[in-house]
Write a structure and sequence with these properties.
With 185 residues, the chain is α+β, with helices and mostly antiparallel strands. Helices cover 38% and strands 19% of the residues.
Length: 185
């Protein structure tokens, strides 16, 4: 698939099933992630690749976090969080490791990891896999850090659910670029 076609066709599939990418494929994917733009080459992006028993561990972390931090938690919601990691054969936890730097504020480091995340989604698509970026209750807050064994200078930008796309293919919308783009010439 050529690069432009890969970008235009990337989408978040309705359903993700086994198999997940091989170790060799994930080496490529993470190398693509680390080619994201990165002011001063601070290398802020970190990833935790979760498969197999790791998904059980993540499920337990989600349940512990929910029990201890979500008010009025119902059994139905807890069950939903318990099952959440098993919606795909692999989950990648996306983290930005923030460093104090005179020229590179936190937001630039978060943006770099965000660009790395899109590189992951595009690389997965090019290799014939699907990915879905999700946040929800377990991302973008500082309380989750200790549950995941992370440091206070780190930020969880989300969870990428990864596998083979399954189910009916989404119809991708055709957007009118003139509504989004102004041209100064
Ligand atoms: C930072 C970020 C967080 C997201 N969080 C969620 C989420 O928690 N749940 C969800 O269903 N979609 C979430 N999405 C949206 C999906 O990843 C996806 O982009 C969206 O459903 C549109 O589908 P498409 O990628 O096929 O265009 C998030 C997207 C971004 C960029």
């Amino acid at each position: 698939m050529n690069a432009i076609e890969n970008i235009l066709k990337r989408n978040s599939p309705r359903e993700l099933v086994a198999p997940h990418p091989t170790e060799e494929e994930m080496n490529l994917v993470f190398n693509c992630a680390l080619r994201a733009p990165d002011h001063a080459w601070l290398r802020p992006s970190r990833f935790i690749q979760v498969t197999g028993d790791g998904l059980v561990k993540l499920s337990e972390i989600f349940q512990d976090f929910a029990r201890e931090n979500i008010n009025d938690l119902t059994d139905i919601t807890l069950e939903k969080y318990k099952n959440a990691p098993f919606r795909a054969p692999m989950v990648i936890i996306v983290i930005s490791n923030i460093r104090i730097h005179p020229k590179v504020p936190e937001v630039e480091q978060l943006l770099s990891t965000s660009a790395a995340t899109q590189n992951i989604l595009l690389a997965l698509h090019a290799l014939g896999y699907g990915g879905i970026w999700r946040t929800g209750k377990f991302a973008l807050n500082e309380i989750i850090l200790k549950y995941l064994g992370l440091d206070q200078n780190q930020r969880v930008l989300g969870y990428l659910y990864v596998g083979k796309a399954s189910g009916r293919q989404k119809k991708l919308p055709k957007l009118d670029i003139s509504q989004f783009v102004k041209k100064w010439s």
